[in-house]
Design brief:
The complex is a heterodimer of chains A (250) and B (234).
Chain A lengths: L1 E10 L2 E11 L4 E5 L6 H8 L7 E6 L2 E4 L5 H8 L2 E4 L11 H10 L6 H14 L15 H14 L4 E5 L7 H16 L4 E4 L3 H7 L2 E6 L2 E6 L1 H6 L4 H10 L3 H4 L1
Parallel strand pairs in A: 3-8, 3-9, 6-7, 7-8
Antiparallel strand pairs in A: 1-2, 1-4, 4-5, 9-10
Chain B lengths: L3 H12 L2 H27 L3 H16 L2 H23 L10 H27 L2 H9 L4 H31 L11 H10 L4 H30 L8
Helix pairs in contact in B: 1-8, 1-9, 2-3, 2-5, 3-5, 4-5, 5-7, 6-7, 7-9, 8-9
The chains are: A alpha/beta (250), B mainly alpha (234).
Bound molecules: adenosine-5'-diphosphate and magnesium ion.
């Protein structure tokens, strides 16, 4: 469904991605782990063309493109196949929850308003916000905003949804409600590529875990392989740091 | 003692200049809002060439007195136009041209610079991330500006736009240097006969005060409407 090959990206002299290959099949839930600064956000942004890669190929279903040279039309058509959930929610400040969710349908895809609102309401119901349609982002808690962010991506019915640390800007007591929604849509068969530090999510719903460090994929495998039996020293070190109890299972 | 009767008369004479003042203001804003906005976008885009050119233009406008800009336009445009008309073999006497045309030109050129700076800082304030969010749901750049960026940018820019507009209204009083029949000129000319200049200045003062207060009120009202989505922030 999504295949990317040899993605390179530098900011000035700082080489952030050093040749990333990745493939995701329909229904996959892939979790990317890695220390801060290892290039996870940049990778997601390159896939969605929010950042222009220096080099790299991608194929989305039938469509092949060059991550460095793709034209405006190609970029826009790829973006319509991808959903993106931002770390800081990034809702449209001047739109209500429902408008946030429907804008990509009414404006981006020229869908009639009634139809879009029907879809939008369903998406908001799914994330447990059936009583918040007409609220503006500023009137919502962080957890509610992020759930609108997820509904916004879900409503577009994309082939894949990319999540960039969707819970790391949230107060601890709000993380659960967002993770709950993510698990729910994962179980419904949504294809997801998720950057997160929430190990419970990775262990419960991921079918593949990727560990990134300093711009390369160090190791990937099933959650069981990565968590119980990591092969690379760098992976072990990372897990020791992030899972204090991990030391006991070695 | 003040001649109150003349003061009242002159107040209405000054008022009769309001349409000209407003016309010059509106035309200048009408030209400079879209052009200034496009300039602002050009400047944010890393394209260094345009950034430099527009930067020099803005510095020039901000760094020279308005009256000097008026003299430059007033003395150079006729010469330019004349050679242009000769080229086209048009038989027009440009020296009979209504000065309001010069006013349109000079105040538009001035406002373009001022507004491009206002829009530039507002564009920086409206976070780039809002544009990215719009891209992520499949909007084009044009759609993103129309739906998300411009509505938010206007809220940010409104106080400065109000300032720029009242400044522009006041600056049109310099139009007397081009014999523009606006508020100041009319009120002063009427005062010539009996040297009632103090009364004339009071009348002029009152008219501008009234005009600018109304404009300010209008902007405040409109801003309140635009910021419907902001809660609990001043
Ligand atoms: N727009 C940018 N300009 C310059 N450097 C950047 C930019 N975005 C990210 N970086 C750098 O790229 C590296 C990787 O960042 P990022 O992809 O955000 O990592 P992660 O998401 O894994 O924490 C960091 O060193 C960061 O400073
Ligand atoms: Mg990141």
């Amino acid at each position: 469904m999504l295949r990317i090959k040899n993605v390179h990206k530098s900011f000035g002299k700082n080489e952030v991605l050093k040749g990333i290959d990745l493939s995701i099949d329909k229904g996959d839930v892939v979790v990317i782990l890695g220390a801060s600064g290892s290039g996870k956000t940049t990778l997601l942004r390159c896939i969605n063309f929010l950042e222009k890669a220096d080099q790299g190929k991608a194929s989305f279903g039938e469509v092949d493109l060059d991550l460095h040279q793709a034209g405006k039309k190609e970029i826009q058509s790829v973006r319509k196949k991808l959903g993106f959930v931002f770390q800081n929610y990034n809702l449209f400040h001047n739109k209500t929850a429902l408008e946030n969710v429907t804008l990509g349908l009414t404006v981006g895809r020229k869908m009639p308003r009634e139809m879009a609102e029907e879809i939008g309401r369903k998406a908001l119901n799914k994330v447990g916000l059936s009583d918040r349609y007409d609220y503006y982002p500023q009137q919502l808690s962080g957890g509610q905003q992020q759930r609108v962010g997820i509904a916004r991506a879900v409503a577009l019915n994309p082939d894949i949804i990319l999540f960039d640390e969707p819970t790391s800007a949230l107060d601890p007591e709000l993380i659960g409600e967002v993770l709950g929604v993510m698990k729910k849509i994962a179980r419904e068969g949504t294809t997801m590529l998720v950057v997160t530090h929430e190990m419970s999510f990775a262990q419960d719903v991921a079918n593949r875990v990727i560990f990134m460090d300093q711009g390369v994929i160090v190791e990937e495998g099933s959650p069981r392989e990565i968590f119980s039996n990591p092969k690379e020293e760098r992976t072990k070190q990372f897990l020791r740091r992030i899972l204090p109890e991990y030391t006991y299972t070695i | 003692m003040l001649d109150y009767e003349f003061l009242l008369d002159d107040f209405f004479i000054a008022l009769s200049g309001v349409p000209i003042t407003l016309l010059v203001t509106l035309i200048s804003l009408g030209v400079s809002i879209p052009v200034g906005f496009i300039f602002a976008i050009f400047r944010l885009d890393k394209s260094r060439f345009w950034n430099k050119i527009i930067g020099v233009y803005v510095s020039f406008v901000r760094g020279t007195p308005m009256i000097v800009q008026i003299f430059i336009v007033y003395s150079s445009i006729p010469v330019l136009l004349k050679s242009f008309f000769v080229l086209l073999q048009w038989d027009t006497d440009i020296y009979k041209l209504n000065p309001i045309w010069y006013a349109f030109i000079v105040f538009s050129l001035n406002s373009i610079a001022i507004l491009s700076e206002i829009f530039r800082s507002a564009l920086i304030a409206v976070h780039r991330e809002q544009l990215e969010a719009a891209y992520s749901v499949g909007l084009s750049t044009f759609q993103a500006y129309r739906e998300i960026i411009i509505p938010q940018l206007l809220v940010v820019a409104m106080p400065n736009l109000c300032n720029a507009t009242t400044n522009l209204i006041k600056a049109t009083s310099l139009g007397y240097a081009m014999s523009l029949q606006e508020i100041t000129l009319r009120a002063k000319v009427a005062a010539n006969a009996n040297y009632n200049y103090v009364e004339a200045y009071i009348a002029i003062f009152l008219v501008y005060l009234l005009l600018c207060s109304l404009v300010e009120y209008g902007f405040k009202h409109y801003e309140k409407k635009l910021r419907f989505y902001k809660f609990g922030t001043a």
